[in-house]
Amino acid sequence: MQSIIANSLIIAGAALILIGITLALMQKHFPIGKLPGDITLRTRTTTIY
Asked: Fewest CB atoms within 10 A around its CB: which of 20, 23, 40, 47?
């Protein structure tokens, strides 16, 4: 049972890292306010604070 939880945590962490990388790349090329990635950026910043 614990291995399932650990695996899902690892997958979630990897997904967050991938989202962060793609957001950083998109921010270089496009104004991020017009992208749907802005929503994930906002939710991540609100969870941090």
From this structure: 47
